[in-house]
Design brief:
Elements lengths: L8 H4 L3 H12 L20 H12 L28 H13 L10 H17 L14 H6 L3 H14 L5 H21 L13 H17 L6 H13 L1 E2 L4 E2 L8 H31 L5 H31 L3 H4 L7 H14 L4 H18 L15 H12 L7 H8 L1
Antiparallel strand pairs: 1-2
Length: about 425
């Protein structure tokens, strides 16, 4: 089954107004930034399709609180022995879906599922080595093989950052915060000079994007992140885009343009969100009479870098918008797969910040496709590479709920 099918180009061409809106937002100072920040409209109610997918996830949670990778599509083979073996990355994806649907460790239809899942993840982090990247004890999962051996660590970082913003239980908050800080320190210690972390994986560029997302979400949640580490990751994401040709580096993307473009855009968007928050703080400090000349010079250097980041994001967004006119680009590898879902999520999270008719068209197109390819039992299945039902179901749900993506910096900036 084709991922997108025979799209009419008029249904997917994102208009010039999106580009102009992004340019305007990118040019504003941090105190006015909305684009790198968060959704601009009230999230739509959960659909029946989303409800069915959430119910499927809850039903397939293991007694440990974790999720296995689940069944793979017929004919793919491999990984059958890991179907019901706890998988950290799959668990984090399931938790992200449940939380974005409005569930917390204390409230919601699936509050107990979230709480048990978070406790499982925290237990895994607590037992992990503080100096190396791995957390997971299960090796050989489908997502590790296809995204990279450390994908579990980066998904853990993203999930813990989101649950920290949602839980009202002070004991759990303390545990989650300690685990999140530990994961960030592991990432800081193991980042390479070129700004990357991952190793192996068929579509490793998507693993890198998840690493950047997790690191920036942790920073937005209040965890101190080494700015040098963030800067290296930002540059690596920017370097994957050639502004002269409008193309993206094929390195780590399995030669699939959708993965390459979505990962670069997603990473730059996540970097820009925290840039906006920090820029507001730095400008206030720059204006303070007590700030010394040497410190002011360092601040001005950071502010100049954030300005460059905005300009780079503007160019990247424009390039991706142009590529959305091509049905083959949107189809990725050509059939349903977890990598396609994850790529559409990254693009959606960038576009939802703009709002307007163009965002509405994108959301409708993606939602229609996800609804069409959903299985009768409420799950989603991939037909190449990442095929485990837990990951595919979770990723598809996140695409359906992309207007619920939490970016707390946005609201804080807009209220100022």
């Amino acid at each position: 089954m084709k991922l997108i099918g025979t799209m009419g180009k008029t249904a997917v061409i994102l208009s010039v107004s999106l580009i102009l809106a992004h340019l305007a937002a990118a040019a504003e100072p941090a105190s006015a930034v909305k684009a790198a920040s968060g959704p601009t409209a009230k999230p739509k109610p959960l659909s029946v399709n989303a409800d069915n997918g959430l119910a499927w996830l809850a039903k397939h949670q293991l007694e440990s609180g974790a999720w296995g990778q689940g069944e793979e599509s017929a004919g793919m083979g491999g990984g059958a022995s890991l179907k019901d073996t706890p998988s950290l990355g799959d668990t984090c994806m399931a938790l992200l879906s449940l939380m974005r649907a409005g569930n917390t460790p204390e409230k919601g239809t699936y509050a107990n599922n979230v709480r048990e899942g978070v406790k499982y993840v925290c237990g895994q982090v607590a037992e992990s080595d503080p100096n190396s990247l791995p957390i997971n004890k299960t090796a050989g999962t489908r997502i590790q093989a296809k995204l990279g051996r450390y994908i579990d660590t980066f998904m853990t970082c993203t999930m813990l950052a989101e649950v920290q913003e949602k839980t009202a239980d002070q004991e759990l908050l303390k545990e989650v915060t300690a685990c999140l800080e530990k994961v960030v320190r592991k990432m800081e210690k193991n980042q390479r000079p070129d700004g990357t972390w991952g190793d192996g994986g068929w579509a490793q560029t998507l693993e890198q994007q998840m690493a950047v997302k997790g690191m920036n979400k942790a920073a937005m949640a209040g965890v101190k992140v080494d700015e040098t580490v963030r800067a290296r990751a930002a540059k690596e994401a920017q370097d994957r885009f050639d502004s002269k040709s409008g193309d993206f580096s094929a390195k780590g993307s399995a030669g699939v343009g959708l993965y390459a473009a979505a990962s670069s855009l997603g990473a730059q968007t996540d970097n820009a969100a925290y840039d906006a928050k920090r820029e507001t703080e730095l400008r206030a400090k720059l204006a303070a009479a007590a700030t010394q000349p040497a410190e002011k010079a360092a601040i001005e250097k950071d502010l100049a870098r954030y300005e460059d980041n905005r300009n780079q994001l503007k160019a990247t967004t424009q390039a991706v918008v142009k590529k959305l006119e091509d049905d083959r680009f949107l189809a990725g590898f050509g059939s349903n797969g977890g990598e396609e879902f994850l790529s559409h999520l990254a693009i959606g999270e960038a576009l939802v910040c703009q709002g307007g008719d163009d965002w509405t068209k994108w959301d409708r197109k993606m939602s229609d496709n996800m609804n069409r390819i959903q299985n009768a039992d409420g799950s989603w299945t991939g037909h190449h590479c990442i095929t485990g039902r837990t990951f595919c179901t979770s990723a598809a749900l996140l695409v359906l709920m992309v207007d619920r993506s939490p970016v707390p910096v946005a609201a804080k900036i807009q209220r100022r």
